[in-house]
Design a protein that fits this description.
Blueprint: E1 20-22, E2 28-30, H1 31-36, E3 39-40, E4 78-79, E5 90-91, E6 93-94, E7 100-101, H2 112-115, E8 129-132, E9 139-141, H3 154-167, E10 185-187, E11 192-194, H4 196-202, E12 214-215, H5 217-226, E13 244-246, E14 251-253, H6 255-260, E15 268-270, H7 271-379, H8 384-405, H9 425-432, E16 450-451, E17 457-459, E18 462-468, E19 479-484, E20 493-498, E21 502-505, E22 513-522, E23 525-526, E24 533-536, E25 567-570, E26 575-578, E27 584-587, E28 596-606, E29 613-617, E30 633-638, E31 642-647, E32 650-656, E33 664-670, E34 675-680, E35 683-684, E36 690-691, E37 698-703, E38 707-712
Antiparallel strand pairs: 1-2, 3-8, 4-5, 6-7, 8-9, 10-11, 10-12, 13-14, 13-15, 16-18, 17-18, 18-21, 19-20, 19-22, 22-23, 22-24, 25-26, 26-38, 27-37, 28-33, 28-38, 29-30, 29-37, 30-31, 31-32, 33-34, 34-35, 34-36
Helix pairs in contact: 7-8
């Protein structure tokens, strides 16, 4: 109800309608407000042919008056009588509802007290008066009847009355002069609410009034709402009731209008029939509008959800940005440490060279000084024969020593400058150019693909699926995602991502029922899933000579949700390492219980000779100890020289041969024979590791911070191995 309140207020005064009249443009206005906005036009510019009234000008005869509109379309806010330079201009005002109202250019109208009196006491309307609709700004020149020529909107008046009554906290007496008291009764015949003093004074229970029925106010309000409306009378013939409807003029008329007025030649219909017809049309229009309102409510819910998603995505994106910048800062710090290490090495090298040269020169200078002092003492001797005996040798020694000082001995072997210049220009330029990449987002997400059933089929343990976009879909598609369950009613998993619309999936279980579905995606998002297709693989396998094709080709990754918190994932969960020196366990996201499966892991980093463990485990394996320490895992742990098999903390089958950076560790799980085999660099490591493998197993690995491995799946089984043989070739007993 409160949303309707704006519909019940006058566009001029902003209050609830009082005695509303209907303008030819179908807008409503209070009768008193209509008198307030009347404007008198010059006699020379008001031809009788352009006069109109509310009596039936439904063809908008007043449209020609647009050429001399009372308001200007400019932004000045002032209106003038169009075409008259001598006519005064009046400022444009705004009503409480925000519409423009043009006040009269004539002297101010009578006070509001006079306007609310009986119409018979209203001052006369000036001749050639013109009224402008405050909502659509259409202008209309009144005829001799003035405002009485406009029909009263009794329906709107009744709606306003009911709305005000519903909003009132208590019904007031209608006869109290000053402050109305709360009504205690209502007379159904008088249609008046009385308080007790007014009822005793004005409605005594005697005489002609004794037969009137007095009811409680609440019941009187209901009876007033449900009581029949007073019959409307014709605006031109006040004594005649409106009984017919003019189809051409689209207004109710009386019989006298049909006989004498301009409606005599028009098509008319019964008022009741047109009343029901228009009610039905309004109901239909309201149903359509109600649907639009429902869509608008749903749209508002969508927008509010979008606000929440924007906030969540904003926080997530900000965290991602901070993480990316922190990663860049960490990389820069690591590089800084490497460069500082090189500078320190250069610094130590220069100091060592210079210090060695200082030591060498110091020793040599000491020897030279000693030789010089000895020669001076020899020169002081007065024995010629004795001097000549040693003089030749001394002369040679002095020349030799002097020649040793002349072979670059007095030149520094190292400069004090560091011949290292850090080229940071390209990196600084790249940092300055660091920005977001704006993706071209299509207008919307694609439609759900349609599976082409006539092209979908199964053969042995393979399934071929084909799909296409709906015929009328025009949204661009970047690719498709095909999903299959595990053949046992489990969760769906992705088996294909790409642009092709046909895919063959090999290596499925025989005699199994698979469910498949496909969805499309583009930069805007992902479509809905297609209808689910159920497929049945063959009941029997291939001949024994081709039995190796039974091996199941499975694609899977490491599972972050079940891994130990110290595990670090990258490369779409295909590469793992750890931030702890203790062993931590991570498993694959796919479990196996049938078929033959083979996967490999390459060692990307191997520092300080750790011993990672590779194998399979149950879903509830311990995650904070080495794989194989409990009875939920079967593993091979290996260092740089040898390996051991371990289950339930029992170590067996020590085998020479270890791993290093770049090594490949393979795991072969054969449910047809119930065995588990390990390989290192495509060679079997030791004998069959474990037998009697039954149940559901997950690929697993344990490692610490010194190891990083990358998972490779969807691989065929090694060529040397044939399922079903009593003992695989090359095995060690």
């Amino acid at each position: 109800m409160e949303e309707m309140e704006e519909e019940l207020k006058c566009p001029v005064c902003g209050s609830f309608f009082r005695e509303p009249i209907i303008l030819p443009c179908s807008h409503n206005i209070c009768l008193a407000c209509a008198r307030n906005i009347l404007v008198q036009t010059p006699d020379a510019e008001s031809p009788q042919s352009s006069r109109a009234s509310g009596s039936g000008v439904s063809d908008y005869d007043y449209l020609d008056l647009d050429k001399m509109s009372l308001y200007s379309e400019a932004d000045s806010g002032y209106g003038s009588y169009g075409g008259f330079a001598s006519a005064p201009t009046t400022p444009c005002q705004k009503s409480p509802n925000g519409v423009r109202v043009f006040p009269p250019a004539v002297p101010p109208p009578p006070s509001q007290h006079h306007l609310l009196q009986h119409p018979g006491s209203l001052p006369p309307i000036p001749r050639n008066s013109c009224i402008t609709c405050p909502q659509c700004h259409r202008s209309l020149i009144l005829d001799d009847r003035g405002l009485r020529g406009f029909p009263k909107n009794r329906v709107l008046e009744g709606v306003v009355d009911r709305y005000q009554q519903s909003k009132a906290a208590a019904l007031k007496c209608q006869l109290c002069e000053k402050s109305p008291k709360e009504a205690t009764v209502m007379c159904e015949q008088c249609d008046v609410f009385y308080c007790d003093p007014c009822r005793l004074r004005c409605h005594p229970p005697r005489g002609p009034l004794a037969k009137h029925r007095l009811v409680p106010p609440a019941q009187g309000r209901i009876s007033r709402r449900t009581s029949p409306r007073k019959i409307s009378t014709c605006t031109e013939h006040e004594l005649e009731n409106l009984s017919m409807y003019c189809v051409q003029c689209k207004m109710p008329v009386c019989y006298q209008c049909l006989e004498e007025g301009k409606h005599s030649t028009h098509e008319v219909k019964a008022l009741g029939a047109m009343w029901k017809l228009h009610k039905g049309q309004l109901s239909q229009a309201l149903n359509i509008l109600s649907d639009r309102a429902t869509e608008a409510k749903e749209f508002l819910v969508q927008l509010r959800n979008m606000v929440q998603h924007i906030q969540e995505n904003g926080v997530e994106f900000e965290a991602c940005l901070v993480a990316q910048c922190d990663a860049l800062i960490d990389a820069l710090n690591r590089r800084k440490a490497q460069l500082l290490s090189r500078v320190n090495k250069e610094h130590e090298h220069k100091l060592k060279v210079v210090r060695d040269q200082i030591s060498h020169c110091t020793v040599k200078l000491r020897q030279t000084t000693g030789l010089m002092e000895y020669c001076l003492e020899v020169i002081k001797e007065n024995d010629p024969s004795g001097f000549l005996q040693i003089s030749d040798a001394l002369i040679r020694r002095v020349h030799m020593t002097e020649s040793q000082w002349g072979k670059g001995t007095l030149t520094p072997r190292m400069t004090s400058d560091f011949d290292l210049t850090l080229d940071s220009g390209p990196l600084l330029q790249t940092i300055h150019q660091l920005d977001f990449v704006q993706m071209k987002v299509p207008s919307t997400v694609p439609a759900a693909p349609m599976l082409q059933l006539e092209e979908c089929c199964t053969q042995n343990n393979s399934a071929t699926l084909s799909w296409k976009q709906p015929p009328l879909s025009t949204i661009a598609v970047d690719g498709y995602i095909l999903e299959l369950d595990d053949g046992n009613g489990g969760q769906f998993r992705e088996v294909y991502v790409g642009k092709e619309t046909i895919c063959t999936v090999d290596g499925l279980h025989f005699n199994s029922t698979y469910m498949s579905r496909v969805k499309a995606f583009n930069a805007s998002g992902v479509s809905q899933y297609s209808k689910t297709l159920v497929m049945q693989t063959s009941e029997t396998g291939l001949p024994p000579c081709d039995i190796q094709t039974i091996a199941t080709v499975a694609w899977f990754t490491f599972e972050p949700t079940s891994a130990h918190p110290d595990i670090i994932f990258s490369n779409d969960n295909l590469t793992v390492t750890c931030n702890s020196y203790d062993d931590r366990v991570v498993m694959g996201n796919t479990g196996f219980s049938r078929g033959v499966h083979y996967w490999e892991m390459t060692v990307d980093r191997y520092d300080n000779h750790p011993d990672p463990a590779f194998g399979v485990a149950r879903g509830d394996v311990m995650k904070d100890v080495m794989l194989g320490k409990d009875d939920k895992a079967w593993a091979m742990y290996v260092d740089n020289n040898r390996s051991w098999f371990m289950h339930n903390n029992s170590h067996t089958n020590r085998t020479d041969g270890g791993i290093s950076k770049g090594a490949t560790v393979g795991v072969l799980l054969d449910f047809t024979r119930g065995i588990l085999i390990f390989l290192i660099n495509d060679e079997q490591q030791g004998p069959v590791a474990f037998e009697g493998m039954e149940g559901l197993f997950y690929p697993a690995i344990s490692l610490n911070r010194n190891v990083q491995v990358t998972l490779h799946t969807g691989l065929p089984i090694p060529e040397f191995y044939t399922p079903g043989d009593p003992e695989p070739p090359g095995s060690v007993c």
